[in-house]
Amino acid sequence: MTTSGVTRRLKVLALVGLVGLAASGCTSIRETRGYIVDNVLVSSVQPGIDNKQSVEGMLGRPTFTSQFGEPTWYYVSSVTGRKPFVRPRIENHSVLAVQFDAAGNVASAERTGIDQVVYLSPDGDETPTLGRERSFFEDLFGNIGQVGAPGAAGAAGPGGP
């Protein structure tokens, strides 16, 4: 084989390698967040049969619990996919809500999916607040002369008037 044939073959291999490397940079990165769902265990939670101890033994500790109303345990699972330089997108989302009665027995177990997710679009980059806008220098030097001034609150000192 001649040197031009070897050079040409090396160029082709380098080009194929470069294309393969570029294509691998465009693949999606998958991340699982929260509870890792096992469909067999989730479907085995039975209302009227299981209680808090058996649910915790099967599924583990919940992602979070309700603070008000009926005692409910929530198991939240989310799988996101992210391409380089792009925000992550939710590919799969599920919530298992296990509700208990007063005796601690399972009253219901409901699964919801991504159809219940609400996407919020914030209005601007600032949070509106009451009051006036102050500049950096007003914040920095605004209290000069205010502390201990006559008629100012707390001017009498810690003992009071």
Brief digest:
With 161 residues, the protein is of the alpha+beta class. The chain has helices spanning 3-24, 39-43, 52-59, 136-141; strands at residues 29-34, 64-65, 72-82, 89-100, 106-112. Helices cover 25% and strands 24% of the residues.
What would the keywords be for this entry?
single chain, 161 residues, alpha+beta, 5-stranded antiparallel beta sheet, 4 helices, 24% strand
Radius of gyration: 30 Å
Task: Pick out the low-confidence regions.
Answer: none
Based on secondary structure, the structural category is alpha+beta
Shape: flat
Write down the oligomeric state.
Answer: single chain
One letter per element, helices H and strands E, the order comes to HEHHEEEEH
Mean pLDDT: 80
Separate helix tally: 4
**Distance, first to last CA:** 104 Å
Describe the biggest sheet?
5 strands, antiparallel
Give an overview in words.
The protein is of the alpha+beta class. It is 25% helix and 24% strand. It has four helices and five strands, in the order H-E-H-H-E-E-E-E-H. The protein has helices spanning 3-24, 39-43, 52-59, 136-141; strands at residues 29-34, 64-65, 72-82, 89-100, 106-112. Strands 1, 2, 3, 4 and 5 form a five-stranded antiparallel sheet that branches. The longest helix is centred in the N-terminal third of the chain and has 22 residues, at 3-24. The termini are far apart. The model has no long low-confidence stretch (mean pLDDT 80).
